[in-house]
Design goal:
- By secondary structure, the protein is α+β, with helices and mostly antiparallel strands.
- The chain has two domains: 161 residues, Fructose-1,6-Bisphosphatase, Chain A, domain 1 (2-Layer Sandwich), CATH 3.30.540.10; 114 residues, 3-Layer(aba) Sandwich (D-Maltodextrin-Binding Protein, domain 2).
- The chain is built from seven helices and 15 strands.
- The strands form three sheets. An eight-stranded mixed sheet has the order 4-3-5-6-7-8-9-10, with helices on both faces. Strands 12-11-13-15-14 form a five-stranded mixed sheet, with helices on both faces. It has a two-stranded antiparallel ribbon with strand order 1-2.
- Strand 1 and strand 2 form a beta hairpin.
- The longest helix has 24 residues.
Length: 288
């Protein structure tokens, strides 16, 4: 039986700080690549789960760049990425990377996409058996770099190198909560997600659909959303953002932990009511 996330031992803070700096550096360099070399007309290279679940040439180029940088700096670590390619390792550390989180936004030129880089322990392919301990999420259009390491808090570095610590909102009333979410590309999943939105709308302030799970999780940590939830997330979608939100003192959960079935995050004042609401709604619509 694989160890649970709570059984895993995290690297010491000195190593975590070194890997945090590496994550920041390579996230920035990949972000600059996807912006500086973005063609005037971005073309779809292939699709995945449906005809609207797209991959661009720059997704693969960004991932190749990230893997090359990681193999140079940390040859014994494993790498798990969204696109084709990856690497095995022997160190017990896996880098979980999303070369462009928010590819459809990138395709359309909407400035809400990011490079997400996380270092984790455990097996990120097994739900509940891994934990992130370093995370970096870089929005190359706004030049905002979100960073965290386990036990070290979360911060954002903006243009000019100015840093500020992240903290969630003080919202403690569901009716005042601005809630982010996202939708999958398979029609059946979108149908269930749409029905859950209909359930939530009368009970909250409003819904936002930004188009990048990594940025949504960072937004909860930064106090730009009161809460967020989504189904269908993969480890590369949530690893870095999960840590950044948690280290900012937001509450993050799911169905037996964050994962594909459900990931949610909220300001402390909305816990446990928000988590219970989306857990119950998700379970109900899965039964429908």
């Amino acid at each position: 039986m694989p160890p649970t996330a709570h059984d895993l031992t995290l690297p010491d803070d000195a190593l975590a700080a070194t890997l945090e700096a590496l994550a920041a550096d390579i996230a920035r360099s990949a972000g600059r690549l996807v912006v500086d070399e973005r063609p005037d007309a971005v073309e779809v290279a292939t699709t995945k789960s449906s005809a609207t679940d797209v991959v661009t040439v720059m997704d693969q180029r960004s991932q190749d760049h990230l893997i090359a940088r990681l193999r140079e700096a940390r040859p014994d670590d494993a790498v798990l990425g969204e696109e084709s390619g990856g690497a095995s390792g022997t160190s017990g550390i896996t880098w979980v990377i999303d070369p462009i989180d928010g590819t459809v936004n990138y395709l359309y030129g909407i400035p809400a996409y990011a490079v997400s880089v996380a270092a984790v322990v455990g097996d990120p392919k097994t739900h509940g058996a891994w934990r992130p301990f370093v995370g970096a999420v870089f929005n190359p259009v706004t030049d905002e770099l979100y960073l965290a390491r386990a036990g070290g808090g979360s911060r954002v570095v903006v243009a000019g190198g100015v840093e500020r610590q992240l903290s969630p909102t003080a919202c403690d009333e569901l009716g005042q909560a601005l809630v982010g979410t996202g939708f999958g590309y398979a029609a059946e999943r979108r149908d269930r997600q749409g029905r859950l939105v209909l359930d939530l709308l009368p009970q909250i302030r409003d819904i936002r659909r930004i188009g990048s799970a990594a940025l949504d999780l960072c937004a909860v940590g930064a106090g730009q959303l009161d809460a967020y939830y989504e189904t269908g997330l993969n480890p590369w979608d949530l690893a870095a953002g999960w840590l950044i939100a948690t280290e900012a003192d937001a509450v993050v959960g799911g169905l037996d932990g964050p994962g594909e079935a459900l990931t949610w995050a909220c300001a402390p004042g909305l816990d446990p009511i928000f988590g219970s609401l989306v857990v119950e709604g998700t379970a109900r619509h899965l039964r429908d």
